[in-house]
Records
---
Amino acid sequence: MKPRRMSDDVDGENSVMKTCCCCMDVRLGTIVLGFCHLLIHIAGLVVLTQMLLHPELYQERYFETYGTTPRSADNSVALAIAFFSFLITILLIYGAITREPTYLLPFFCMQVFDFCVNLLGAVGAISYIPELKLMLKNNPNFPVGDAVDKMDMKTLMLTVVVVSVTILTIKAYLIACVWSCYKILLSFHVKKARNSFMFQINQSDETETHSLLPNYEDAVKDTPKESPPPYTSN
């Protein structure tokens, strides 16, 4: 009995992209994305650790930006979140290198969550354009605060919409890259399991064929030997 052939939809080769960033393989692109996130997380961990150990170095800048002094509890929570994100990024890189698709799922879920948060933030920024303009104008660390102050509401809203759509598009594209890499690696394991199953089927068929045919020596022994007819002379 021949096993049923799996369809191409199960393999996922026709429904996912094979390359990203115009010419890079999607698996290689996922690894590069993981290393970029890894560098960002390392920088964030270093800054948060310094803020936790030496808060006096960032009090003035933090107060100018947020109007309050940093709290150690907030820094501890941010450090824990950055550390877990760091571990999830390591899992992504390890899974992409070793072709293990399950290790990519935590990073994919984190990407989807980040996309939803940014989408809500973009909707909130568009809904409260006057408050956003006032906040950017009064922020001394914002480099183009004067240019924002000179914009009218329509121009500022159009700028916020364009920037938000661009950021969300880039994030959605990176999510698609990771998901495509997951589908390709899953297809690789499906093909590997299929080939192993077909090899076992062929081996069992050959074993059954050999078991049905008797051995030559046994066949010779089991064949009855008839004595020749007696010789009679006429």
Note: The first helix runs from residue 8 to 11.
---
Amino acid sequence: MKLLRGVSQTPFFVGDLKLAENSVSELIAGPISTILKPEGHNFVGSGREDADVRMLGTGRPFYIEFKECIAETISPEQLSTIQNEINTNNPFVRATHLKLLQKEELSKITSLENSAMKTYSCLIWVNEPISSEKLQSLEKYTKEPLVLDQNTPIRVLHRRSPGIRLFYQLVLTTQAGTYIKEFVHGDMGRTEPSLRSLIDNQTADIFELDVIDIDLEFP
């Protein structure tokens, strides 16, 4: 689980500049590395969320491959101790079910990325109130799916901030691979329909986004 925003999944650099001070990979692999003493490690998650998105619920499955270790193995007791240390010593992440994996289990973790349904809680803002009629029209999508035509996103980093922002809470359950931020603001027409188009093209965007559940069973 990732409890705070501003934490990337793995170290995030642009050139020599590290954009996020902390990463899930470093916070979990670091304590384990003190025992295994590897040359390096590879952190593989079942999907990923942006650094500004929290991962709540039961968290996201992952595995870490440690390379060229001095120590040959690590015991379940040591992993349990490390898990407690991780969960006690930092406010950013929580780890559960740390254990050694067999090679055949690794593909299961990566395959979940393309199949698991996810539920999100979004705090969105709009520049004018959404009418009660429009809110009622959106309620039908709690009972029937909304099919999106969604292209690879254009990440618009610098948007002009409006003078008025009104906030609404939105909960979505989506198929794997859905871009939630783009569904809300429309991504310059590259996602159809979008929440923005469903409420008559008001300005709409994400203010805060959380993953609150991934529908999977692991371990």
Note: The first strand starts at residue 7 and ends at 8.
